Amino acid sequence: MASSMLKYATSSVVKKQVMGITGLLLCGFLLSHLIGNCLMYLGPEAFNTYAHTLVTNPLIYVAEAILATIFLTHIGLAAQLTYENNKARPQKYYVKQKTGRGATFASSTMPYTGLIILAFLILHLIQFKFGPEYVITHSGVEMRDIYKTVVDYFQSPIAVIWYIFCMIALGIHVSHGFWSAFQSIGFWHPKYTCLLKCLGKVFAVIVTVGYSALPIFCYLQGGN
Amino acid sequence: MSSDNLLTLNLKIWRQKNNKEKGEIVDYTIDGISPDASFLEMLDVLNEKLIAEGNDPVAFDHDCREGICGMCSLMINGQAHGPEAETTTCQLHMRKFQNGETIVVEPFRARAFPVLKDLMIDRTAFDDIIASGGFVNVNTGNAQDANSILVPKENAELAMDAAACIGCGACVASCKNASAMLFVSAKVSQLSLLPQGQLEAEERVKNMVSKMDELGFGNCTNEAECEASCPKGISISNIARMNRDFLSAAVKAKD
Ligand code: HEM
Ligand code: SF4
Ligand code: FES
């Protein structure tokens, strides 16, 4: 029983399904994180209080553990699948041309956009979560001034450009990934698959534009 | 036909003595090719010339030459079965090429499809996948009444579409991951969509996918180059069907 479960869980099909489910969960995370970030537009108090409420809730450790597991599963499987895929054609073609009727730029660069996101993710955690700590008091409660950490960081144009570059890569990644996940899980429909492809592109634009607006907003606040 | 219609072509062809030795691209120039010739007839002309010169002809796979057997293959200028959509190499005509054009001809490449000689490959892996479950067990004996087993029209059509697969391997060849998902999903679907194939549907999908993985084909990344290169226009909706059938069979597995 256990061995057969392992056998099917490590099949190419199920690995891709786990990839798809974790990818969709990450899409959900992207959306909720974006909405939270938008509180920056309301000013330091709203944003800092939101962040403070999040990190002081003991459930945050559970949530972080789940999120980390999702990320690590997605990344681990991405590495394994990409490795196996390279191995499946040891001798490359002398000339290889795409038909123009199938693969897209986004679909053929998934491992590369994925790597950019990974690099971004590591830097992002270092710069913000584990970044400079300032303290501020809002409505009598002492809390971390994460607002200042973020605004300070984005005073460097290079930081802004790097951030936007990564958000473009992320948008490209999800523009293919979104519908691809449904196909992997086994959902295909003559009408709705088309709709999902569209929705993936809309989602990609929301993510890229939504996240890119923040560093520009911070940069425009000026130094302090 | 006036001779100024005839084509002169520069060919870059993969030559490889056998399975063991390393191959290389060799240049040939050939002239007097009729635009009405098929791609394989063009290679026939080249081979006659090579034989007349005392050289080894180029080995390539072919059989029916009418687009139904699935034996012909070839990567032509980097595309499986050449540039024409839904066309096998044997049905590709030289009028699709320009006079003086350089054409690169290589075998279909995948770890699971070793090159036997020149452009000939070993596609036994596909037979192994079929042998692992791509069939139905039926009782022999008197034929039963026609129409005694009802099949919904829509399923009959989908099954028929899937059954158009000729097992050529262009899907594997064109896929950047050398994945066999389109072929396997067509062979799973053509049976699982019909009542006769339902009985063994779960075992079939589990066994065929397991065999496919074991043989060293890559994983699907949903790019649809297979569908675009398939001479029979097999749809990747078959892959989605196989994905969900496999998942449900794996969840229910008692073995
Ligand atoms: C928030 C971040 C991310 C999101 C929202 C996301 C989303 C997705 C989605 C939805 C898919 C489609 C899965 C499928 O086709 O079934 C996917 C595929 C993929 N992801 Fe991500 N991903 C993220 C981060 C990453 C990272 C950090 C990496 C690698 C380091 C990565 C590498 C890949 C690769 C290589 C694929 C293609 C896998 C395949 O088709 O076989 N992703 N991603
Ligand atoms: S699915 Fe299409 S490309 Fe693949 S083997 Fe069948 S006919 Fe050939
Ligand atoms: S030779 Fe039979 S399909 Fe081309």
Radius of gyration of chain A: 20 Å
Report the principal-axis shape of chain A: globular
Number of strands of chain B: 7
Give the total of beta strands of chain A.
Answer: 2
Layout of strands and helices, then pairs:
The complex is a heterodimer of chains A (224) and B (255).
Chain A (H helix, E strand, L loop, with lengths): L1 H8 L2 H26 L6 H13 L2 H29 L17 H4 L1 H20 L5 E4 L2 E4 L1 H8 L3 H29 L6 H29 L4
Antiparallel strand pairs in A: 1-2
Helix pairs in contact in A: 2-4, 2-8, 2-9, 6-8, 8-9
Chain B lengths: L6 E9 L8 E10 L5 H14 L22 E2 L2 E2 L21 E5 L8 E3 L2 E2 L2 H8 L21 H10 L7 H5 L6 H12 L2 H4 L2 H14 L10 H5 L7 H16 L3
Parallel strand pairs in B: 1-5
Antiparallel strand pairs in B: 1-2, 3-4, 3-5, 6-7
Helix pairs in contact in B: 2-7, 3-5, 5-7, 5-9, 7-9
The structure holds protoporphyrin IX containing FE, iron/sulfur cluster (SF4) and FE2/S2 (inorganic) cluster.
Structure description:
- The complex is a heterodimer of chains A (224) and B (255).
- Chain A has 224 residues and is mainly α.
- Chain A has one domain.
- Helices cover 74% and strands 4% of the residues of chain A.
- Chain A has nine helices and two strands; from the N terminus they run H-H-H-H-H-H-E-E-H-H-H.
- A two-stranded antiparallel ribbon of chain A has the order 1-2.
- In chain A, strand 1 and strand 2 form a beta hairpin.
- Chain A is globular, with a radius of gyration of 20 Å.
- The N and C termini of chain A lie far apart (63 Å).
- By secondary structure, chain B is of the alpha+beta class.
- Chain B contains nine helices and seven strands, in the order E-E-H-E-E-E-E-E-H-H-H-H-H-H-H-H.
- A five-stranded mixed β-sheet of chain B has the order 2-1-5-3-4. Chain B has a two-stranded antiparallel ribbon with strand order 6-7.
- In chain B, strand 6 and strand 7 form a beta hairpin.
- Chains A and B meet through helix 1, helix 2, helix 4 and helix 8 of A and helix 7, helix 8 and helix 9 of B.
- The complex binds protoporphyrin IX containing FE, iron/sulfur cluster (SF4) and FE2/S2 (inorganic) cluster (FES).
